[in-house]
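Milestone M4 deliverable, item 7.
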Amino acid sequence: MTQEFQITGEETALPEKPSFEVKSIKRGFYDGNDGSCSDAGMITLRNISKNSQDVGYKFAIVEGAFEDSLFRDGPVTPSTFAEENEFTFIWFDGHSDEQEPFEVTVEITPVSKSGSTGEPARLVIAHPGVKKPWWKIW
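Output delivered:
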């Protein structure tokens, strides 16, 4: 739920170091319907800095391992369908009753319309995993 940030080449100020927080993490699960998207995991990050609307962000995992591709290569902005300043990233998490834990450090680099990059920030994104419910014996 992001969209590509357009670098226009127009001269702008160097973007400030961003500040992000993890708003939510939703893990994939099996809802009984093989045609649904319940196996998708979603991570929503909120930009809590006061940067201009003319700034895009590059996200990259710099520590830890993740099971699937999570981020695009280039800078992005929130989707027009998302809440303001919220970036949602979707991955195929699987539809098992158990989900493994993860912890990654993400580097978030601001990018101006001119293509200049500002000082990056780092954010740890972690989830303890999901254990199979005790009552599911099959």
